[in-house]
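Figure 2 data, in text form.
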Amino acid sequence: MRYNVVFTEEAAADFRALDGSVKKLVATQLKKLEESPHLGQPLGNMRGFDLTGYYKLYAAKKSIRVVYRIVEEEVVVEVVGIGRREDFEIYADVARRLLKKA
């Protein structure tokens, strides 16, 4: 079954902000999610941020994290954040984004 990879508005902005060469590496990883949505590692509590139900996928020699969730009933992989791994910053950003939606 092929999954449709979609971006939240914030994740789309994250992707557009990437350097061209890094963007290609991230795009390659995102393409893999269409066939293998469980390719990433499940997230849980990341330094106080509850990201249970979300996954992380590495790109660009593990310097970039893609945070996403799988919506099985819609056959969708929803990307909620893309960013550098430094100081768990991307996880904090995603947690803030999710709190805004709640």
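Caption note: The CA atoms of residues 3 and 72 lie 9 Å apart.
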